[in-house]
Structures are given as C-alpha cells and as structure tokens.
Amino acid sequence: MKRREFLATPALGLVLPHSLGRAAGLAQEEAERSEFEYRPDLSKFPQRLHQDFVTYTPGIEYFILGNGDLIAVLQYAPDRKQERPLTFVGLTIMDAEHFGRKWSTFLFHPEAGFSRSAAVVSVDGTGYAASPGNLIGLEWTYPESVPVVALRWKAGDCEVKEELFVPAEGAVLVRRFTITNQGAIECDVTLRGGMVPNFTLFDEIASRPSERTVVGRGFASITLRSTDSRAESSGRYDLIVPVGTLRSGQSSSIDTLYVLRQDESGERAGSSAPLWQSAVKYWKSKTSLSSDSQLVNHLYNVSRTGLKSLVARSGKRDSGFWMYNMEWVRDDVMVALGMLHAGLYDEARTLLRKMIVHSVGEDGRTIESSRWFGFDYTELDQNGELLYGIAEYVAWTGDKAFARELWPTIRLVGDFPLQERFFDRRARMVHNKREFWERSDSFGVHDGFELTYQFWLWLGLERAGELAEHLGDTETATRWRAAASDIRTAVLSDPVYRMIENGHLIKRRRLDGSWQQHFVPPDRAAMPPGSPIGTIDRPSCDPDTSSALPIAFGMVAPQDEIALGTLNDLEGLWNQRWSFGGYSRYNTDSEPDPPAPWPFGSLFVARAYAEVRDSDKVWRVLRWLGDIHGGKAGAWFERYGPSITPPAPPVSVVGWTWAEITGLIVTQLLGVRPAMDVLRIRPWLPAGLDRIEASLIIRGVPLHVKVTRTTDKPLAIVNGQSRSLQDGTIDLAYSPGPPMEVQIKL
User: Angle at the Cα of 523 (from 517 to 524), degrees rounded to 5?
Assistant: First the structure.
C-alpha cells in the first residue's frame, strides 16, 4: 500500500485496537518514509541568523549618513573569500532617536540580511544588480558641500549611478538613480526596487498601488516611494519604474525616498529638489577645510560628516554604534569638541545641554554606560572632560548665557571629584579602584591614582576656572584653579607621588605611592577565556596611550625630556602583537580581549607627536587610518581585531575617532585654538604638507585662515596688515565686525 493510499483509508485504523493500530501505522509509515521521503542531516542546516548581523569582518566598510532624525548606512563588504560572505552592497536605516544592533535595523531580513535592499536594473529584459563583477566605484563626494555616497555599477551597456543623501532635517533618505546608456544602440530599461522591512519591527508590510508606495508599520513606520510619475508598486515589496527606451548616450534619473515616522516632508514631496537645497544651505554654513593633501582632506570631510550623522535631534548618541547601545559622558564630550572644530555649534550645544541636564547626578557625578556606578568605580576623568568641553564651547561661540543658565549643575560637576572620598590631600590627586579604560579591582586594579584622571581634572578645572571668572563666580574660580595647580604639581614633581618613572609618564600609583606596573586578576577564571590578562602571570599595564594626552594638551611642555621619554616608551605599543600598524590602547599583556590596535588611542599619540613636531610619526598614524578598512568610508572601528563575544560586545564603529581627527587637523595643524580672552592661532605644517586653509565662524565672525610654507621669515598677515609671530603663534582680539582674513607663512 502506498503512503497516500494508507492515509486515504481511515477505516483501517479504526478496526484495530488503539495501541496495535498506532504501532502498525508507525511501522507502515516508517517503511514508506524510507522509500518516499528525503531525510536531510539537519546538523548541516543549522537555524541561524543571516551573516549580515556580523559587525566586524575583513575589509568591511560602512558609509554612514544622518541628520538627527534618521541614520542610513550603506554596507560594503568586498571580501568574498569567506564561507558565508556578507551582502556585497546593502542598505539599512535606523531612527536616530533609538539605539539598536545591526540586526535590529529597519532593512535587516532574518534570512536574507541586507540583500533585499539592492536595486535591480533590467536592460532589454536582463536584470542586473551591483556585484563584485560590475562595480565601477564607491566613494564619498561633496557636491555643493553636501556629503553624498556615490555608488556606480554596470548593467549591461548601461552605467547606473546611485547617490544617497539626507536633507538638513526630516526623517528622509533620498536614493537617486541615474541610468546612462553607454551602448551604441537604444535599449529598454526598467528600475525595480524593493523594501522588505525587518520582520521584528514591522508586522504590516504591503505595497499600496493607489499611492505607488511600499509601507511597513509596526513598532515603527517606514515608507518607500518615488517622486517619479512613472513609478508603480506591486506585490508585497516592489516599487517599479518603467524607464522606457534610452537612446545611445541618453540618461534618466529617478529619485526614491525612504521615509520614517510618516514624515510629512518626505510623504508629500513631489520633488527631491527642496530636500537637496536644505542640505546645501546647511553644509555651506559649516566649517570647510582644504589642504594640498588628499588624505588630510578626506579624513576631515568624513569626520565632519560622521560627527553629524550619529547624533539625534534630542542629543542622544550611541557611544558604540551597533555595539554598546549606551552613552558615556567622556565620549559625548569628545564628540562635542569635534563638532566645534567642524562648525556644528548647535549640535555641540544640544549635546552638552543633554549631558548637563540628564547625565549629571544630584551630587555632580556623571553617567557612563548610561548609568551611575558606586564611588569606588566612578570615572572621575569625565568630570574634568565635561568642564573642559563646556569651557571650549564658550570659547568658540562666546555663548556665556548657556553656561550661566546651567552654572549650578556645572559647579557640582567641578566640585564632585574634590571631595574627601576622592581627593587625597597628601598626594593632592584623586583616587579610586577603576582605571581610564574601565578595568577595576576584579582585573587587579588597586585603589590608587590614575594619570589620566589627574590630567583631565587639571585641564577641566583650569579652563572652567577661567570661565567661572568671566561669569563673576570668583570664589569657584579660585578654588578650581588652586586644585588644578595642586594636581599638576603633584603629577610632575611630588617626591613620592609624581607620575614619572625612568624619564617617562606612568599610568598608575597605589595609595602608598608605589608604582603599579601589573594588573594581576584575583580570579583568573573570571577573565574572558584565552585573553592575555587571563593567561599571563604578571600582566603589565604600562605603557598606556592615554599618557600621550598630557603632552597633546600642554600639561607637559613638548620640549621637556619627559615628553620625549613618554613617546619613546609608547613606541612599544605600535605593532605590539600584529603587523598591520596602529597602537594598542595599552600594553596588551593586560588586555581582556585579543591584542589589537585602537584608532582613537593611536590619535592620542599622533596629537602628542604633533606637539613635539615629529612629522614622520604623525603621517604614520594618518596613513594607517587611510589604509585600514573603515578608512575608505571614514567609519573606523573601536579596535582592529575580534572581541571575545561573549562576554564582550561585538566590535563596531565609535564616533570618538572622528573627534580626535578634527582635533588634530583643526587645532594642531591649522592651529586654531580659541581661548577665553583671545583667539590664538598656532599652526604647524608637517613635512609633506605645504598648505592648509579653512573657513570658520568664531563667535559669530567669519574667519578665513590660510597657512602656507615659506623659505622666508615666518609672518602673519591679518586683513592685509603684517603681524609678527611669537614662537609660531599669533593672538587676535575678539571683536564683532566684518570677516577676518588671516594668512600665516611658516
């Protein structure tokens, strides 16, 4: 009896006793299954998420666009040698006001990843999509100063150019297609796009032919539409534009729009022209910079774009994009500083306000990883960084009203680390059980004094003390300046506690003044499996790239032997346990993850080398940033190596690197350093850079600074008048008035 005949004869089962009938039925089914059914080895087909959920893989690049309302990411994964390669070119979108992992973004498909975001261009009935075999190029372009991701690929005899940009505001992404027939004869062309929203977020997905849109509704809202009157939607996911016949050399452009939150500017736009003009107006008002180095220009432009892209309209900012999904004051302050260097003053103000109002507790402590920790583990450097960021904002913008409005909370921020539980009066420094990179006593960190905590408090208290004086709070100014002076004196010259050994700065001392050179975990089994700190007997914690910060920001004079000794000591971190360049954040003996270089730690060192005028070492870091993956798109990973996941989160992009790049280029190469009372310009041209110039707005006054190399005597020309340089520096008075033109010849 065949299986289907057996199933079609219910009476046979009914006349048998139940147990006997079931046994006989199973035996019969087993016999027939062996003949008629395919039984796969399910161990070869495990149920798993599409590989596009992976954040870090060889060669991967993320082109990131954002405007405070929407974040869009174009993934480029050129490495096709992996067993499960990621989607070659794929698009996804996020709401800027909500953090998420890569697999929770709006266009991630559980089984197909980002592959369903690809556009297909049919030429004479044959469909093409961007692939390794037909890719022409993928790069950033800046028409009319607007950051645009430009992807070009071949579709038969046609060239397809995809351009992505976002307007100045509105939850809208514009994806423009320009299709050009490069063949000798005419051809018939159709553009087919689709939108398959993430099934986790959207449970109502459909095309709406009457509206010529594809929509997703659920925990969020997303719409795909075209401003082209030829567009039509069909099926569940498809948006189709019958382009029609293209003659040889003829082009056709089609704009598609992804719209979140049913944004009216995108839902009703009959043309993308107003969206483009809003972007042009926005970016032309920001700082622009150029030089005779394509690398410097690229690094600045992608950093300026990135700083804008990942901050929400409310000031929310994920410190680890697709990684941590949390906020840190220190990271946000660095980004606010980078925004000042890029002319993003409104965004910097919003970010600083959010920190002061929402990230500072009633006693003045600051959040890290979106929460407060106990006193033993409070990251005291953050108080200094926030003070410094506020003072820098006022210096760049002149906006004293901002600081005056929030001064009671700002004063708490400055006084918090000076209380007795932290500030050791004998050592004149602050102490706790947590170090700058967040290892604590469970990693072998003893209660003691961390160099980076002292440095940032010195700098923050000193600069905020100047601000306090300007606001009329002389008592606070006196208190903070005295504490800053005590800290600097202790760090550099205290006979017991100074943070110097063997002619270089050190990372940490214990409460008794002894140098803590090793972090020995009390429970090695609690360390990530296989990590250096979990396996090396006496893991060294020195040197540490944060030791370069006192040199980069002037706590240690660049001509001091301590500066040169510290940088020489840090050279042990370049290629410490790899061969492709970069500095690890600290001695990888005490690393809980696989040894790897860190971009923003490497930039700490580069900025210190800029202060001591070492051209080769600065270029080495900048070229490394340009060459490693992430450099093409300008979205650098926190570290260049895998994490032990779990317990560590996945490796992904952090925005801090952009801030260190703009800081190096604007404050140390171009040399623009607004102080509270004067505008100071102290440029430096490393060998191989002969020109750098920028148009900025400082305290409401347009300023153009141009620095060039000369074989003659160095001089400055301010609005046509010659001025002498003092030790390579010129100080200019702040005054409202016409634009200023400054030329400096070095």
Answer: 75
Q: How many helices (H) and strands (E) does the chain have?
A: 19, 31
- Look up tokens 């905590």; give the residue: 453
- Taking the C-alpha atoms of residue 599 and residue 101, their distance in angstroms, rounded to an integer, is 22
Pair 574, 582: CB distance under 8 Å: yes
Q: How many independent structural domains does the chain possess?
A: 4
CATH code, domain carrying 681: 2.60.420
Beta-strand ranges (E) seen in 421-503 are: 423-424, 429-430, 448-450, 500-501
**In this predicted structure, what is the pLDDT of residue 330?**
98
Q: Are strands 61-66 and 172-181 parallel, antiparallel or unpaired?
A: unpaired
pTM (whole model) above 0.90 = yes
Picking from 378, 382, 387, 380, the residue whose alpha carbon sits closest to that of residue 407 is: 387
Q: How many CA atoms lie within 13 A of 462 on its CB side?
A: 15
Asked, as a colleague might, if the bond just before 646 is cis with ω within 30 of 0, I would say yes
> Is 13 a residue whose pLDDT tops 70?
no
3-state secondary structure of 706: strand
Distances in whole angstroms, Cα of residue 42 to Cα of each of 38, 45, 47, 110, 111: 12, 5, 9, 19, 17
Instruction: 360-368: list long-range contacts, CB under 8 Å, 24+ apart.
Output: 360/386, 360/409, 360/412, 360/413, 362/412, 363/412, 363/416, 364/409, 364/412, 364/413, 364/414, 364/415, 364/416, 365/416, 366/329, 366/413, 367/327, 367/328, 367/329, 368/328, 368/329, 368/330, 368/438
CATH code (residue 524) = 1.50.10.10
Report the residue count for the chain. 746
Q: Which domain holds residue 468?
A: 286-367+375-669
CA–CA dist 297, 416 (Å, integer)? 41
String of b and e for 440-454 (b: at least 16 CB within 10 Å)? ebebbbbebbbbbbb
Task: Indicate the SS3 state at residue 473.
Answer: coil
| Mean pLDDT, residues 402-429 taken together | 98
Q: What is the DSSP string of 204-224?
A: EEEEETTTTEEEEEESSEEEE
Which of 381, 359, 385, 383 is CA-nearest to residue 372?
359
Which residue, among 50, 32, 56, 28, has the nearest Cα to 116 in the 3D structure? 50
Q: List the structure tokens of 628.
A: 């490693």
* Res. 56: pLDDT tops 70: yes
**pLDDT of residue 8 exceeding 80:** no
Contact 460, 329 (CB under 8 A): no
Whether 200 and 107 have beta carbons less than 8 Å apart is answered as no
For the chain, the helix, strand and coil percentages under 3-state DSSP, each to the nearest 5: 35, 25, 40
Q: What is the pLDDT of residues 236-272, one digit of tens each?
A: 999 999 999 999 999 999 999 999 998 888 888 889 9
Which two tokens mark 431? 């102490």
How sure is the predictor about 45, in pLDDT bands with cuts at 50, 70 and 90? Answer: confident
Distance CA 608, CA 65 (A): 31
Kindly state the tokens that stand for 168. 């100045």
In terms of domains, do 292 and 266 share one?
Answer: no
Give pLDDT, residue 14.
Answer: 35
8 Å CB contact between 366 and 440: no
In a domain, 119, yes or no: yes
Q: Examine the pLDDT at 313 and tell me if it is beyond 70.
A: yes
